[in-house]
Design a protein that fits this description.
The protein is α/β, with parallel strands linked by helices and 186 residues long. It is built from 7 helices and 6 strands; from the N terminus they run H-E-E-E-H-E-H-E-H-E-H-H-H.
Length: 186
């Protein structure tokens, strides 16, 4: 029920008139609760034609990610997290022609330099279409919020609605993202 209300709120926020030219970007297309188009992927959301966001992504999911047309995978998880195997994921991705990028982003101590690097990686055409994941979707959503506001010039309200649909649930990460945006706008 909460998920359905969030989607309705997101659609309402995104359909509201905006003055920014970036309003033509499509809204994210979160899947119904429990639905996963790729075996081994948690919380998948396709936010536009070139970006997919997700939570935990198992090595066995990589062929499905490639089949959907993604050319690169950006992993925000730390090597020390349970269930993470950067070396195995990198080897499996590269074996099927996916570019594998690893940008560890610690949710308990988010780093401005990592956010800067994230913006470079998502803007690089060589990385598109890009599949971005972390453990739950929370870190992906926080960094995507930054991208929407800094690069796409979306409003805070619209960006937050999308980030929450992707998986933003941490007030600390939301604060980090909004503080980062404010520091870039001053």
């Amino acid at each position: 029920m909460t998920h359905a209300l969030l989607i309705v709120a997101l659609l309402f926020a995104i359909s509201a008139p905006q003055t920014s030219p970036a309003t033509s970007s499509p809204s994210p297309t979160p899947l119904p609760s429990g639905a996963t188009p790729i075996e081994g992927v948690r919380n998948y959301t396709k936010v536009d034609a070139t970006i997919g966001c997700a939570g935990a992504t198992e090595v066995k999911a990589l062929p499905g990610i490639a089949k959907l047309g993604y050319k690169a995978v950006l992993n925000l998880r730390e090597e020390t997290e349970a269930g993470v195997s950067i070396g195995e994921s990198r080897a499996a991705a590269e074996a099927i022609g996916l570019r594998y990028l690893h940008l560890p982003f610690k949710s308990s101590a988010p780093d401005v330099k990592a956010a800067d690097e994230f913006l470079k990686l998502v803007a690089d055409p060589a990385n598109q279409p890009l599949f971005i994941h972390c453990g739950s979707g929370n870190r992906v959503a926080a960094l995507w919020l930054i991208k929407r506001m800094v690069i796409d010039k979306w409003t805070e309200e619209r960006s937050l609605a999308e980030a929450k649909a992707i998986g933003l649930s941490s007030e600390a990460l939301q604060k980090f993202a909004l503080d980062y945006v404010a520091s870039r706008q001053s």
